[in-house]
Amino acid sequence: MSLSLDSPLTAVPDLPPRLVKVLEKEGLTKVAEVISWLPFRHEDRTRDDLASFQASEVPACHQVLVTKTGNKFFGRRGSGMFEAQVEPSAGASMGQLLTLRWWNMPFMSRVIAEGQRLIVYGKVKEFKGRLAIDHPEYEILDDDETQAIHSGRITPVYRLKAGVTQKTLRTATWHVVQALGDDFTADILPPASEAGEFAGWNRARALKTIHFADTMEHLERARRYLALEEFYGYQLRVVRRRRAVLESGGHAHVAGPLARDFESALPFEMTGAQKRSLLEIQRDMASRAPMNRLLHGDVGSGKTVVAFAAMLGAVESGKQAALMAPTQILAEQHFNTARKWLEPLGLNVALRTGTRAEEGGLELLNGKMSDKNHILIGTHALLHDADLVKNLGLVVIDEQHKFGVAQRARLIQKGNTPDVLVMTATPIPRTLTLTIYGDLDVSTIDERPKARGKIVTKVRPLTKQAEAAKFLNGQLEEGRQAYLVYPLIEESEKLDVTAAKKGYEQWCKLLPHFSVGLLHGKLSAEEKDFVMRDFRAGKLDVLVSTTVIEVGVDVPNATVMYVHHAERYGLAQLHQLRGRIGRGEHASYCVLFVPDKDDEAKSRLAILEETDDGFRISEEDLKRRGPGDVLGKAQSGQAPLKFAELLADTRLVRLARQLAEKTLDEDPQLRAPRLAEMRPFVFKEETPQAMMQ
Ligand code: ADP
Ligand code: MG
Question: Out of 350, 480, 544, 548, which could bridge 475 as a Cys pair, Cβ 3.0 to 4.6 Å?
Fold first, then answer.
């Protein structure tokens, strides 16, 4: 009788009962549980260079023989280290020496002993002519029987639970893989996927191969097959959701004379990219199917004006339009712009933010919120007012990356399928718009307004503040304004940072002829508003601030930005910050101050001196921080992907998309048995509550 996924581990031939017990203790009792515990990396233990040591920045795997061990102690406190002297256990380089070191782990002397053969993994470094690895991952190759599993092959390495060792798990997967037949599991992917790259592959083969592959090429193929499977699931979900929205019956909002009047009253001409994006939006809005569109454009590309023009389409159809911003400062800014541009057209604009409503401040500002308001502007506090949002024709969500999917879903529920436009300045690679934002259509503003002064960016040592103050003085005398950005509010011992408050005091002294304001996250909303209003009105020349100005703030007269301790920020964040200047006709200057000796920061930030192309900068960020980090955040609430790094593979993501579209064409309810397990994932309605967590 052949083994199945449901078989207990006790039924696996040759799997020692001792190991079965260990696995049971950790909750692993079935074949399926072992086979679905995927390795997170592999070591090619067939390579010749296992037998020679070389200092390197990348960790490598070596097979070694222990020749000497010992604990060394130093200092009175009894700190010390355990050292094992090793040499290659075979091959031409025998006699070459390497030291393995474990700090403050004297008990290692009971684990590692002379004469043992080990597989070690880690970065080899050189010091004083000796080669060493500190705290390597290691496996002891003890008896000949298991050695064939753990060495001389492409070896899987697993993330472990507490009680299971690498070798135990690997031994188990080995025996499970040997005992499973060629068709122990049905395919999830449709047969169409078996063309081209995946000819000859199926789920069973991919699963076996991802544990034990005979070549690196097969391993890669297996990884891609399983990634395709995973992406296929995501695509089924976004395509299904997208279709559900399209079928849910919205309203047609046709833009008329109002939108045209708006455009011709603008103090500037819209760029080609703005016009094109607006047309795409208006076309969507004119159709009865609800719009679900992402407006994507680098900082300063002019998304707001496109949004306002779009909102007029809803108003002309007798509906209200809402614009939501991630911060109060931004909501107020949009409100001011809307009043400036839209009230002359006879429209009634209202602002609603969290604090204002509670304190009744709204009435003071702009009459009472009601059906009479054509345009509603607010933070996401807007969402909490069901009455407010019942007549919405269009919802615009600014800086979507700060919002997350949850709020969007919530609004759609309350607003009874309005058209939705989300806007972001975060450059998102195409593959991600297909997955994470895969239920959205995308418009891109890939062109900046022409009449803009250029931005000069420099990385400078923190000690150059005196020169910086002199330069700033000059700019202020010409009537410009400046942002001086500090990373923290309070002086912190641990992080040696000159905090915003202290910076504020310093700059007040340095710039006696100008008015300096302070803005930080701990001010009340009202205080923030006042400061921001004064800065916008030119009553403040200089704004000392924390990163609360990071997104969206638009004061075209501001031409100087100094970022203190710029080394503490990510590239993308600095790019966003810098986007606060260079918004008017004057040339702008961004200076990134870093500690004098921080060469790493200087080289990392150099790209900002070179380019202001957000796309290039975010690619660089991605390269440096790795996809896991960037994706982790971007996905906001979704389970992390197992094969996230392959998301960069456009071809694979597109293939998944095509397969999903086809599947849903042929089988909209996903009744095919192969999809039984996928179905709940695809059809899960994310309630806002569940997604908020
Ligand atoms: P973002 O895309 O970063 O949200 P904004 O919408 O805030 O950018 O626009 C930045 C500034 O550029 C605003 O002051 C806006 O009025 C101005 N602007 C927008 N479009 C144009 C244009 N076509 N020509 C000149 N200035 C423009
Ligand atoms: Mg904006």
Answer: 480
